[in-house]
Amino acid sequence: MANFTTAAEAVKLIKSGDHVFIQGSTSIPEILSQAMADRAGELRNVTVYNAFAVARGPAPYARSEYRDSFFVDSFFVSNSVRDYIAQGYGGAIPRFLGEVPALFRDGTCRVDVAMINCSMPNEEGYVSFGVSADLATSAVECARVIIAQINRAMPFSYGDPVIHIDRIDAAVECDDPLVEVPTAVPTEQELKIGGYIAELIPDGATLQIGVGGIPNAVIRALSNHKNLGLHTEAMTDGVLPLLESGVINNSLKKVEPGRSVASLALGSRRLYDYMDYNRDIIFRDVAWTNDPFVIAQNPKVVSINSCLEVDLTGQICADSIGTRIFSGIGGQHDFVYGASRSEGGISFLAMLSKTAKGVNKIKPVLTEGAGVVTTRFQTQYVVTEYGAVNLRGKNYAERAKLLVSVAAPEFREELDRAAAERFGHAYLRLR
């Protein structure tokens, strides 16, 4: 049996120099994280692996006075560590999210301790990581020591994030509510984007849907579709109406037919309760859910993701604002590539045409320092509130012409001049 103890005692298993993985999604083991931070005076040079997560606030170990105790290495810069990393007390490891588990498994990124947040055990003594299989599956597989919160608030999900309680070295029983992510209510402009995308989604499509107002706008516009499937990285509240109404029934999928597939979940308590012991939903290691060659086995894969800016050749930035790393690569590339290999697959990269401050997001060239998450060789549809344009098979001048057409009207003249200067007659002939 697992050794049930206090959080303070459990984290004594962490030693100076250790590499500690902390589970993400909305299931950060907050009690254990605080207990580890409380040992800052005793610990030195502990590397903390952080990934996609939504936290209640700044991580307790991410304080400047703890910089000699905890160095954060992040695979996706989340809100809990964003400022700490921006101040230079941590780093970001660029990697497609689906490829991170391989770093653990081949020893490139050593995992000494995995701190996870689990459900109560079932009748056979198995616990589930619940809302977060993603990187937790591989981290637990590779860790020398497993420390867990056994949490009454965690749903039991089926699939990869299930282990027997005997594998846990130290366990802390708790009733620690999961972070709840409010469903983003789409704006009028986002609803336009959602409508453009939904019109292009065929019945029988297998969906990968990102997070935020635009994906939720797409979901709202799909209520009359039929026989949709779900194979996604993140499951959100937005899909619940489609699951409950039978619009998503997974009947035409080739991979896990009849079941919705995800790697993590973030939403409200309603979503977590819906997941609990629900055999129609399976959570899998992100190395599998995000494998483009697995994704592509499904027909009509539709990938819907957001971005921060795009240049006139179709290069997509989705992880940084200039040189500042804002988030991470996540699974955007994996699903764009998977959709491109799927029979009848389509990928959409969507954004509002300008920022809240009125800054143009379709640019002659990307902002200096901006990272390319989806290359221009892979970008298919780019969608703004002014329409959807398909860049597939278009040369650079044709791409520029299409992208200018979905830019905010006040920026089109300057973009048109920039395109004419860059592409010359090849562009001018399109006017």
Short structural description:
The chain has 431 residues and is α/β, with parallel strands linked by helices. 26% of the residues lie in helices and 21% in strands.
Present the secondary structure layout:
Elements: H1 7-10, E1 19-22, H2 30-37, E2 46-50, E3 70-74, H3 82-86, E4 90-92, H4 100-105, E5 113-118, E6 126-128, H5 136-142, E7 145-151, E8 158-159, E9 162-164, E10 170-174, H6 188-200, E11 206-209, H7 213-220, E12 229-230, E13 234-235, H8 240-245, E14 260-262, E15 264-265, H9 269-275, E16 281-283, H10 286-289, H11 292-295, E17 301-306, E18 309-311, E19 316-317, E20 320-321, E21 324-325, H12 332-341, E22 346-350, E23 362-363, E24 381-384, E25 387-390, H13 396-405, H14 409-423, H15 425-428
Parallel strand pairs: 1-2, 1-5, 2-3, 3-4, 5-7, 7-10, 8-16, 11-12, 11-17, 13-15, 14-16, 17-22, 18-23, 22-24
Antiparallel strand pairs: 6-9, 18-19, 20-21, 24-25
